[in-house]
Amino acid sequence: xxxxxxxxxxxxxxxxxxxxxxxxxxxxxxxxxxxxxxxxxxxxxxxxxxxxxxxxxxxxxxxxxxxxxxxxxxxxxxxxxxxxxxxxxxxxxxxxxxxxxxxxxxxxxxxxxxxxxxxxxxxxxxxxxxxxxxxxxxxxxxxxxxxxxxxxxxxxxxxxxxxxxxxxxxxxxxxxxxxxxxxxxxxxxxxxxxxxxxxxxxxxxxxxxxxxxxxxxxxxxxxxxxxxxxxxxxxxxxxxxxxxxxxxxxxxxxxxxxxxxxxxxxxxxxxxxxxxxxxxxxxxxxxxxxxxxxxxxxxxxxxxxxxxxxxxxxxxxxxxxxxxxxxxxxxxxxxxxxxxxxxxxxxxxxxxxxxxxxxxxxxxxxxxxxxxxxxxxxxxxxxxxxxxxxxxxxxxxxxxxxxxxxxxxxxxxxxxxxxxxxxxxxxxxxxxxxxxxxxxxxxxxxxxxxxxxxxxxxxxxxxxx
Length: 465
Known about the structure:
Largest sheet: 9 strands, mixed
Low-confidence stretches: 1-6, 169-176
Mean pLDDT: 85
CATH topology of the largest domain: Rossmann fold
Number of helices: 15
Radius of gyration: 29 Å
CATH class of the largest domain: Alpha Beta
Structural class: alpha/beta
Helix content: 25-40%
CATH superfamily of the largest domain: P-loop containing nucleotide triphosphate hydrolases
């Protein structure tokens, strides 16, 4: 009897992927994995096979028409997958068929079926159908083999098949043709260059008998294989606060009638050297002095440089670092995907549970991400912080506040504080303006401020211009 595709699931073991397909492939299904060069097709297939045998005790057969056994075994060991061990135990069979020609294909198919039966295999990988098809003078002959042997006979055996197909760069079809329609599921992997850096994505196009999450997701390949990054989530804000939170900058708190609202998100924007980092340090240290946990995430400045700058103003930040009231980290955003960044910052927030957060500076993110991804990341992070009742302060480098991207960021923020240098006669002075303070009364004066040995001091209204 044919296997009911909706009754049993075959997990791939790939982190983040099985959540997209209700826990795994339907057992007995034929799934097409299509992708361009370097997208991770072989790694995905190897993880699928290895997870089955190492975690679930499901024997498998890996048929390669593209890569010889020695190369495959060596490459997978680098990703902590020891196929040789399970070969010796008779739980995995690797069929190296790189040199198969058309006249030997029928015999090869028979061999595959015999091997599947001999070890009672539950998983089969064909790597790749594109290479197999090249063994035939007519492409239709390869597709007949696919339809009659894989799509029918193996279904009856309850073997779940992962069929790899090459997807030429720039080619819109998922693979070659008929195999798309014979397949129960289609997954696409893509590798492409964005802003000079390689990006990889994965997407489930279809999966019969399965409710799928069909969004395109970013993924990486490291020493553990492929890892998916979930798309940043926009949280629902269910609670707002009336309590005020002091910034630690006395004159600014006066302008804000007591400080920022708890749970609000603030943007300090200004050109280089206008005092954004100093304002952020004021904010995080003020919280620590009030026994509030703070998390300071830097996307630009090394940790030691921030400590040195803080100590230059006479602030003993090390005391708060030692007692855990302040956590100071520099987050690297290679490989320039927004999803790993969201995951990293989210993990820090969950582990530390801070009352205050500084993100400094978001400008480097803008330089390496598309505008849409950059805005989505900021929006997701702001919504997460507000949903958790965390008061946050972001810094952003901009000489003016009118660019399109800057305007889109300001919309996401509750408060926007603008720092800038102003020429006054033969002197360069600094000004501070509260451009926006949502749901709270605030002073709209343009104030002059100075950076002194003790930090920022806000002076009287700006005059003389």
